[in-house]
Amino acid sequence: MEKVNYKGADLLAHRFEIRVIRHFNNAIEYNAVPFILTEIQKRSDDFFQFPLSNGLLGTTIVDSAVTVTINKNIAYEPRRYFTCAHELCHVLLDTEYIRSHPGIDTEDKNGLPSSKNSSRERRANHFAALVLLPDTILNALMMEKKSKSYIRHQQKVSYETLKYRISDFIQLRFLLSRSMALDIASAFADKDADPLQQKGIYGFWHAAEDENISPLSRQQIAQKNNDLALGLIDPMVFEGCK
């Protein structure tokens, strides 16, 4: 299986975020969806919705033209928008590869790649999540204590995408282990998440972003945030965060 470089996708997602945020008064109003749709229309020769068979969500075909198709039967809006952003990544980064490897870009009803080259599919999923909910936007939302329901409706992302982005963000920024980051993300974004624990996560987030930790060494920051995260087993440890 071919390995792909994620740096190009990260850079494109960041540039896209900069363009989108200019249209909003502040970060918590961010909504990339209209801009994703416009960009696909501009970059492809044909972009339309069609009832795809075999449970496929979307596909990009490159021959004499670039054709992007989204399954019109996708009822859940966040899933549809994620699929659009996923296909946009292929249009921006993978057209020549798809031209020489027809059929590599197909996504099944579970959002999983139904092709042999899943590395490009994973990169497209990564790009889609970053474009819909960039780091700066996610951080602003959590610092403003916005609910997962607000994020789903305003940023048009599924709870699964929100969980992925929280886990990815806090692992890298707060220097937590992957398993701990995922536990915290699940405690916030899962359907049956405890509201008290969600409040605790806001407290954790604020504490971890506190400017007082900036002069500390990476090892000290990691230990401090590890202690904070472990405190989530008792959400009242952050009872001062209303």
TrEMBL record:
Gene3D superfamilies according to UniProt: 1.10.10.2910
InterPro entries given in the database record: IrrE_HExxH, Rad_response_metalloprotease
Domain IrrE N-terminal-like: 67-167
Pfam families per record: Peptidase_M78 (PF06114)
Alphabetical list of PANTHER family matching this protein: ANTITOXIN HIGA1, BLL7220 PROTEIN
Protein name listed in UniProt: IrrE N-terminal-like domain-containing protein
